[in-house]
Structure formats: C-alpha cells, structure tokens
Amino acid sequence: MTRLSTRSDWLAAHPPAAERLTQTLSEVARRAREGEDFHLAVREFLDEFALRVDAESRAAAIDERPPPTGEPRCDAYLGALAEHLAVTHELQRPPWSVEGDRFLPRFWFVSEVPGFRAISIAQAPAAFRRRNVFVPERSLHRV
Question: Per-residue DSSP letters for 5-35?
C-alpha cells in the first residue's frame, strides 16, 4: 500500500463522485452578482475543477455562459479563465469567452500590491493578457 503524502495525492487517488462536482463559471458569476467575494468564488471553483478528471466534466464546468456580474473586470476575468482552462486541458474554447464584454479597454492588475505588477506582467497567461487582465499564473493553480 502506497502512503499518500498530501491532500492532493489523496484526492487524486480517491476522486469524488461526478455528481458531487457542481461548481461552474456560471455559478461563480451568480455568486459574485449576489455580493459574494469574487476571488473566493473563483478559488473554490478552481479547487473543484482540479478534481475533475475527464474532458467532459471539465468542459461542463466552463461551457455555460456566465451571466453578467455587474463588474466588467470580473466578466473579463471569467472569459480569460474559461479560455485558459480550455487551452490548458485541450478543450474547445467556449464561444461566450471571446464576446466583446469579456475584454477590458484598460489594464487591470488583479492584485493591488504594487510589487505584484511586474510578476503579473511576466506571468499572466495569454488568455488573460489579451483581455488586459494581469494575474500571476500560479494564482490559477490550487494544490
């Protein structure tokens, strides 16, 4: 019997049942619109997305068009995240992710800490950069 050293190892060896995976980008948008913290909702989505083991399940989490959040930066972020996850996991990019309201006219540095700007410029994945959303790449990974 192999000893599992991390929570991630254990979860990979014991994935949850598919019907328990319910987080979607559309749900993130709904939560943000209702006043929940957008970044917390995104982190919870990414936590669950990491547990999805097949392309069909991953696509189901990003395919549905999220409703507008009321905050253009969040809408652009969701478009970037959908495109980034599609590219990373070799999925079809959701058509909604490239709609005009998923792009910002000005730069947005997700972190307000000045020291993170250079890191964000250097590390932001292409899907984020092309929308003027700058986020460190490692903030998109959950372990």
Answer: -SHHHHHHHSPPPGGG----HHHHHHHHHTT
- The closest of 17, 139, 141, 26 to 82, measured between CA atoms, is 26
Cα(117)–Cα(133) distance, integer angstroms? 11
Mean per-residue pLDDT for 29-36? 97
Nearest to 138 by CA among 23, 43, 27, 61: 43
Instruction: Give strand pairing partners of 65.
Output: none
Angle between helices 72-88 and 25-33 (to 10 degrees): 170
Threshold 0.85, pTM exceeds: yes
